[in-house]
Amino acid sequence: KKTPLIAPSLLAANFLEIGKDVNMINNSEADWLHLDVMDGRFVPNISFGLPVIAAVTKISTKVNDVHLMIEEPEKYAEAFAKAGANILTVHIEACRHLHRNIQQIKGLGMKAGVALNPHTSVSQLENIIADLDLVLVMSVNPGFGGQHFIEKTYEKIRQVKALINQSGSKALIEVDGGVTLDNSKAVIAAGADVLVAGNTVFSAKDPVEMIRALKHNS
Ligand code: DX5
Ligand code: ZN
C-alpha cells in the first residue's frame, strides 16, 4: 500500500472566490497546491499568471507546485520564485537548453520539474533525469481541465519509473490530467507518487472528502 501525494489543481476552482478554495485545500489532506500557468502560445489557452500566484501563495499552507505551460520559461523563473513557487516545472518541448533551465530553477532555491506531453518519449529524459526533483507525466494534452485520461500513460509512467530506478535519481513522478477516483489506483500502481486532480476535486460534492479519498484509495 502506497499513499500518494495529492495536488489539487486550482484551474478548476471558482475564480470569483479563489481564497475560499485555497483555504479549503489548506484545510484538507492535500499535500501540494498545483498552479497551472498557460500563455496562449505553448498551449491553446490562457489561465493565470504571476499576480494571481503571488496572492495565492501568501495564504497557501501547502507546497506551491507551479506547472508552466509557457514558451521561454527561463525568462520568468526568477519572477515565479519571487511569487512563491516551491516547485517549478517546465515543459521539455519548450526548452532548448533544458540543462541550463534546470540549474537556473535550482539556483533560485526551487525544486525543478520537467513535464512531458503525451507524444514525448521518456528516453528524452535520459541525460537529465539525475538532476530532476520531479517528472510530470501529462495524461492529457495540456491546455484544459476536465479532459479524458489517455490510457497509454500507464506505460509511460512505468518507463519513467524504470529510468528513475536505473539512474538512481530521486525524482518523484507526478501525473496530470483526467485523474479520477476510478483510475487513481492504477496510476499509483504504475509508479506515480503525486496525483494532480482538478475537476475530480472541484466538481465533487465534498472536495475535502474527495481529496481524502484520492489519498487513501490505493
Ligand atoms: C491541464 C493542466 C492540469 C489540469 C488538470 O493542462 O495541466 O493540471 O488542471 O485538470 P483535470 O484534473 O480536470 O484533468
Ligand atoms: Zn498541470
Automatic annotation (TrEMBL):
Tell me the domain of life: Bacteria
Which family does the similarity line name? Belongs to the ribulose-phosphate 3-epimerase family.
Q: Name one GO molecular function term.
A: D-ribulose-phosphate 3-epimerase activity
GO cellular component annotations of the record: cytoplasm
Q: In which pathway does it act?
A: Carbohydrate degradation
* Function per UniProt: Catalyzes the reversible epimerization of D-ribulose 5-phosphate to D-xylulose 5-phosphate.
Q: What GO biological process terms are annotated to this protein in UniProt? A: pentose catabolic process; pentose-phosphate shunt
Species, as recorded: Chitinophaga barathri
- Cofactors: a divalent metal cation; Zn(2+); Co(2+); Fe(2+)
- Top enzyme class: isomerase
Q: What EC number(s) would the UniProt record show?
A: 5.1.3.1
Protein's name according to its UniProt entry: Ribulose-phosphate 3-epimerase
**The reaction(s) this protein catalyses:** D-ribulose 5-phosphate = D-xylulose 5-phosphate
The annotation note on the cofactor reads: Binds 1 divalent metal cation per subunit.
